[in-house]
Amino acid sequence: MQNWLQKLEYKIKQYMISLSVFVQVIMMTEYVKLHPQYAAILNELNRILFIAMMVGVLVSALDSRRNLSILVLTVALLIMEKVVARNI
Q1: What are the backbone angles phi and psi of residue 86, rounded to the nearest 5°?
Q2: What is the DSSP letter of 67?
């Protein structure tokens, strides 16, 4: 039972990271620059994804010290997202 839950958790994290990268790529296109209302929606979606990833990684980091590096990477991505959002 535990193995099945770990696999599900891993897949959910993969999909959240993939969706976050996809949203970042879409935000840098010319179409979104021409329609700022979509940029605001995508920015909020990206924030929700990062918060969900932070909560998921924080729960995992409490179980194992090995996952602490994932937490550091997620925080770095969040900071990088903030810097990119300010520059846009």
Answers
A1: -70, -35
A2: G
Q: Distance of alpha carbon 88 from its chain centroid, rounded?
A: 18
Q: Please check whether residue 46 is in contact with residue 23, taking contact to mean a CB–CB distance below 8 angstroms.
A: yes
Q: What is the DSSP letter of 28?
A: T
Looking up tokens 């990833």 gives 53
Kindly report the backbone phi and psi dihedral angles of residue 83, in degrees, each rounded to the nearest multiple of 5, phi listed first: -65, -45
In order, the DSSP letters of 18-29 are HHHHHHHHHHTS
Q: Which residue has the tokens 């605001």?
A: 40
pLDDT digits (tens, 9 = 90+) for 33-51: 888 888 888 888 888 887 8
Tokens found for residue 24: 């970042």
pLDDT tens digits, 52-77: 877 776 776 676 766 677 777 777 88
**Residue at 80: amino acid letter:** M
